[in-house]
Design a protein that fits this description.
Distance between the termini: 41 Å
Largest sheet: 6 strands, antiparallel, barrel
Low-confidence stretches: 29-38
Helix content: under 10%
Strand content: 25-35%
Amino acid sequence: MSIQTANSSLLLSGSKIYEILQFYYSPSATAYQNSSEVNYNLYAFVGRTIPWEDNQNPPVPTQDQYSIKKVFKDIIAVKKIITSDVSPVIPRRDWTSGVVYDYYDDHEDMFAVDSQYLISKNFYVRNKFDQIFKCLWNNNGAPSTDQPQFLPGTFDSTFLIQTTDGYKWKFMYTINGGIKQKFLDENWMPCSVGTIIPSPAVSAAGAGSIDVINVTTVGVGYDPTGVTINIVGDGTGASASAVVNAAGYLTDVTMINTGTNYTYAEVTIDVNNGFNTPNVASVAIAPVSPPGGHSIDPISELGCNNVMISLDFTGDEGGTIPTDLTYYQLGMILNPQATSELPDLATDERYDVTSQLFVSPGSGSYVSGQTVYQGTSLVAATFTATVANFNSSTNVVKVINTEGSIIDNEPLFQDSNGAINSAVRTVLSHSESDFIKMSGYMTYIENRSAITRSSDGTEQFRVVFRF
């Protein structure tokens, strides 16, 4: 007889943090198998010189083995992705006047996602100085009309900013200029990688502090001298005082000491002996911070579950990527190999992945995207390839998508069917790339409309991964 047991489980956001940090630090990791080489080598590639059938609507990539091998064959060059090319990112949320922002509540799931798997709670903002703030109170759902900000050098991390609209904000971090240029776009902004793991041992907050007490029901009929704020919880040291205006309205509570080692807290607003009972009793909440306190670890506190790779292809990249080139495909490969470094991983910063054919001087130019071949005809060819680039000064033809074997001292024909120019020259010698095609793990493919390079231009390769 079998016994059925009921189970309920939840994979928490902390599991995503592990994956994000592993991805972020992977370019600098060590010890691949029994080697001293880098553990994770990730390369971005550009490839394919043939336009799509509908170039404005490139086909969706597929991961069948035939298609993956075709992508490998079409690669022109690869460039290594390093740690400075990687950043955790969160959805960009610029502070906007009139928006009602959500506030941090330790009894709420702050990281619940919408149908697009983006965090639905709008509880953090970026201001005009690239300062990131977390909202700790929204004045009972009032629109935000005063932007949280401080001048550099004037902020004390131990206090909060309370704006004139009644909002309370906790500063998290500032996006510096270099990081901003590389990782800030219209949809995403970089999230700071903290150096401290959330823990009761890292700060005076311990298991949690009470940075704010928020009045959810404004009291009426209070005497400013006759109110006591009582905080009940499992921590120690938290204390606060009531804010009562001249009309007897209890509108806020000011923290005197944020306390330490709280995992929960409740607050009561009591009238001292000898004072009248208020007409409307004030009600307040005391949300407890994460372990270690607010702003210790932005990645976990802001629910980061995305990583951006941002890599520049500048000029000819040391001669590996032609500048007079139009390409239609890019992507990434994990842990490829190079012949000169076997059995270890490829480690060079860049690789020219094309086959290079050194041809005799002559008339006619080989055209990028056209087919070249050796043999009596294209149908009976012993070797075919697609032209990536032809340098008429050095008489070097760079080709991709090769089939068959190149034969030196034999002519290389360009298929005249649709070719812009006909060309026939003799292959004097040839060389193969050190980079081993089909090696490693194809991790990402992006089919694009035409990307045309220039000698003084830079293309920025950006891709965001969700965990």
